[in-house]
Write a structure and sequence with these properties.
Length: about 250
């Protein structure tokens, strides 16, 4: 599989994601679907646990043109770039037709609820198994209650949006206790879907400019990620290629 500074990036297409989800549910197997973007790779450079967690996922999408560029610099071809806002929206109709039940976990309570409602409105007939906010204790009794609620819901697909590295760690620590077939992480997906955060039009995101749109619309939250983070991960990738540096072990 393609490797970008120590992180396996499968870069599946939307059709490949759809097929993996369907096969997992039909065969009653569990898969975890994560993503790698430039910010995630920057985190993975300094955080070997996050790197190991992502590499333990069965599928990792290429979330951003920055990752494709980094792969190119390393001689790695990443054929497909897709984000959860794109692939989940593309598959919503199929999920409704197949009767898959989705549990929404993450974000503020009102945001997660609104996101699930908007998804239901857009994809008529889709089944919402349950909704739970992301501000709960990720270990101990409260975590166990959340897992019990997810399991009791009969969900087929669990969307987890806590942000990295919390969401990846939670998935790896709890995947064996969860009775769902598909677990997928989505970062800020609920915020975008609920329109709590603006997302650029598709023609902008499809041309590698989503980072600029996010920087312009909410600079206080992302300036460090892009103004500092993008040059940093570029330098790190080139240093890694030339053997001058390597991710923290």
């Amino acid at each position: 599989m393609p490797d970008v500074i120590g992180v396996r990036v499968d870069a599946p297409s939307e059709n490949e994601i759809a097929r993996a989800i369907h096969q997992s549910i039909q065969s009653n197997r569990r898969i975890a679907i994560g993503y790698a973007n430039a910010h995630t790779l920057n985190q993975c450079w300094d955080n070997p646990l996050l790197r190991a967690d992502l590499n333990a996922f069965q599928m990792v999408t290429c979330d951003g043109f920055g990752v494709r560029l980094l792969g190119f610099l390393l001689g790695v071809t990443l054929a497909n770039r897709t984000t959860m806002p794109d692939w989940a929206d593309a598959l919503g109709g199929e999920w409704a037709e197949r009767g898959y039940k989705i549990f929404w976990l993450g974000g503020q309570e009102s945001i997660a609820e609104r996101a699930s409602q908007r998804f239901s409105q857009k994809h008529a007939g889709v089944k919402i198994a349950g909704v739970y906010h992301g501000y709960f204790g990720k270990t101990g009794a409260e975590n166990e209650r959340v897992i019990a609620q997810i399991n009791a819901s009969g969900a087929d697909i669990l969307l987890v949006c806590f942000g990295s590295p919390i969401q990846e760690r939670w998935v790896i620590e709890n995947r064996n206790a969860l009775q769902v077939n598909v677990i997928a992480t989505g970062g800020a997906y609920f915020d975008f879907l609920a329109e709590a955060l603006p997302r650029a039009p598709r023609w902008v995101t499809d041309n590698g400019l989503e980072w600029l749109s996010r920087l312009l619309t909410h600079p206080r939250h992302v300036w460090k990620r892009y103004i500092i983070g993008l040059p940093q991960i570029l330098i790190r990738t080139l240093a890694h290629r030339w053997g001058w540096a390597k991710p923290k072990a």
